[in-house]
Amino acid sequence: MSKIWTEKIFDDPEIFILRVDDDQIKYFEAVWEITEGISYNAYLVKLGSANVLIDGWKRNYTKEFIETLSSLIDPKKITHIVVNHTEPDHSGTLPETLKVVGHDVEILASNFGKRLLEGFYGIKDVTVVSDGEEREIGGKTFKFVMTPWLHWPDTMVTYLDGVLFGCDVGGGYLLPETLDDSDESVVEEYLPYVTKYIVTVIGHYKNYILEGAEKLSALDIKAILPGHGLIWKKDPGKLLEHYVNVAKGVPEKGKITVIYDSMYGFVENVMKKVIDSLKEKGFIPVVYRFSDEERPAISEILKDVPDSEALIFGISTYEADLHPLMRYVIYEITDKANYEKPVLVFGVHGWAPSVERKSGEFLKESKYRVLSFTEVRGAGVDEKKVEEAIDLLMKELE
Fold it and tell me: How many Å apart are CA 1 and CA 311, to the nearest integer?
């Protein structure tokens, strides 16, 4: 049974978290491998004369959500529901919530959110709020800030007395052992899964992270309460900085991500020499290998791209094209993690070379800078060309 968390996290105003740990999910958005799981966080703000529910859970947990909400408040006493983001992992419980509320509660959403709520659930009675709009609710001022493409066009955040309700903004994968960022060891374990979340979920729109961060910098943010993962009460600035660093692709000195396939060991021969050379020169290679024995998760590969200094691909020819898994990897990297970083490509062919031509077609449209293509036939390894390519990389990173 999935773990459910409820706790008062602030006294003035009274803010409660409702968190469920989804340990059953295997593929987020039916594509990204997340064996580590993900949580869905909703929030209840009690203001005496008003009670505001902010976001919800995935539809699979509707029964549990209603029970959890009812343990904190009689649902009939809810006066407002804020929908920061209409994606069903946050709005799936809304139709049943409206039934148990049983009266004309005011639903607040962006203009695009209103359209999606009608399309998803047939909900038409929605109050549209605009960018920067402030609303007095229960004697408190709620401010709504539009953050489109983080990661849908409907996305907004809600600000109240220094607290930012971020929904997808500020989220991460994993089921943290704590509710908040008070334990540094929990934070350090969690942050790589924030990176993984950012790249897979928002990566295509990562430039909007920088725009959103600029807008939010005008707010005095004392806490961030996202729709997934840890809440940030101790150091919300650390989370915002991490988001910006991932969006910019700030590298870790010496880290090189190496990705290759090897059907019968021929590419493996080349890449062993590449990896050994990297280590000899003081680099830290992070290696992902597709073979007849192993297949790494694409989401894990994407996680290591933003803070790498460079990427190295090893690719076999397959039906006069690229190996299909490497073709998919390169496509997703150039789509979700498109940074101005140097790249080396090593290829192996049997009867006809194609790696340089085919991988070049993918990479020429990206921000990546291909320093060299090195392609050989069969099981041989041209050690001189390998060293020349690594030397080019070293000069580029000096």
Answer: 41
Residue range 149-171, pLDDT digits in tens: 999 999 999 999 999 999 999 99
Write down all domains in the chain, each with its CATH number in brackets: 4-248 (3.60.15.10), 256-397 (3.40.50.360)
CA distance 61 to 66: 9
Identity of the amino acid at 355: V
pTM of the complete model: 0.95
193, β-bridge pairs? none
Instruction: Tell me how far CA of residue 116 lies from CA of 46, 88, 122, 309, in angstroms.
Output: 27, 10, 9, 40
Cα–Cα distance measured from residue 130 to residue 109, given in angstroms and rounded to the nearest whole number = 9
DSSP characters over 126-143? -EE--TT-EEEETTEEEE
Residues of the chain scoring pLDDT < 50: none
Instruction: Express each pLDDT in 129-141 by its tens digit.
Output: 999 999 999 999 9
Q: Where are the alpha helices (DSSP H) in the chain?
A: 62-72, 88-91, 94-101, 111-121, 184-197, 206-216, 236-248, 266-280, 298-303, 324-336, 355-363, 383-397
